[in-house]
Sequence to fold (403 residues):
Amino acid sequence: MGLERDVTGLLKTIEKLHGIQDLHLLLERSLHEARTFLNADAGTIYLKERGKLYFRFIENDTLFKNGAEDNKHLYYSSSIEISMDSVAGFVAKKGEPLMIDDVYDLPVDVSYHFNPEFDKKSKYRTKSLLVVPIKSSSGQIHGVIQLINAKDDSGEIQPFSGMDRIYLSYFAQSAAQAIERAYLSRDMVLRMVEMVALRDPFETINHATRVGEFALELYDRYADARDVSSTERYVKKDIFRTAAMLHDVGKFGVEDQLMNREGPLSDEEKSKVYLHTIYGARLFQNNQSLYDRVAHEVALNHHERWDGRGYPGKYRESNTGEIHFGTGKKGEEIPLSSRIVSICDVFDTLIMRRAYKDPWDVDSALHYIRSKAGKQFDPELVDLFVNMKEIILAIIANHPVLE
Ligand SMILES: [Fe+2]
Ligand SMILES: [Fe+2]
Fold:
């Protein structure tokens, strides 16, 4: 390809990237496409969180050939200071790109150093670098994207060019937009939960947050047990958490008086409460992104039961918009995300005070969950859940159950 890079191809790629809603997926794709387009051997993305840069995505043709991607997980938690000392820190601090022909032969008058730790640990030889800030249009720095070892057509390492820098800046720009969208939607999620709390004072932010955290942990354990790849896991974890937090968002459409009534409800009243599953699912029915699909699944199916006796089941809607509940979904007909959230939601409801019940202690609630394995809940997930008591306690300590 040489200097004559395919600019039409670039524009098409960036357009495609704009269609991805999920932040992690988008960053991962941006890195991959940028690296492929500029023919670089490796690349990383750092995101700025709590005033530091965190290693978030890594691709390396030499180190991580097919199947070796689990190594990537090792680097996710490492962070660096935003200061003039390191290459990425320098770029994040100055907000300007940096091009280095050989990191082991830096000019004497620069403030930054190259950290050889990664090379040493992995026996990799980093040579040329192109590092650009992920900067929003208002000038805010969200992170850094770094490409390593540009290759010529024969695979020889060479310096990056001025054009490469311009191209990579385009990718960084679309990454910045995606990050800002993601922050916006994170705030929107919390506002939606607050709106539900207006209807049902027991659906608090803390309840939603705990259910989200339990679900995240339970999915992680399931992924371990089933050998789910680290990339898939990284993408899905965040989605599962958000979707779990929004499980009861459809309660906004149900009358206040029904929600926390003591004493039994009539059949008609029950159906009105059941409708919160369908109302919630409607909010995400576009199914544009993985995020929409999972949030839809969870809202719709979090009251289905493993034994098929849950609701709303395979319902249908008549022409006049009337809803007829159907036979319950059963076993693995119920999506994994919903089987997970159903356990977490019931558990958390047990340990909370409700208008109709006192709070239970954690052991009794876990005992109850265990007793419903194979009836209300997926038995495999129940096993994993009752074994995560320590983490459950830590999550409750961080997001207390208010009496
Ligand atoms: Fe619900
Ligand atoms: Fe709930």
Summary: The CA atoms of residues 48 and 143 lie 5 Å apart. The chain has a mean pLDDT of 88. The beta strands are 40-49, 52-60, 79-81, 98-100, 129-135, 141-151, 157-158, 316-317, 323-324.
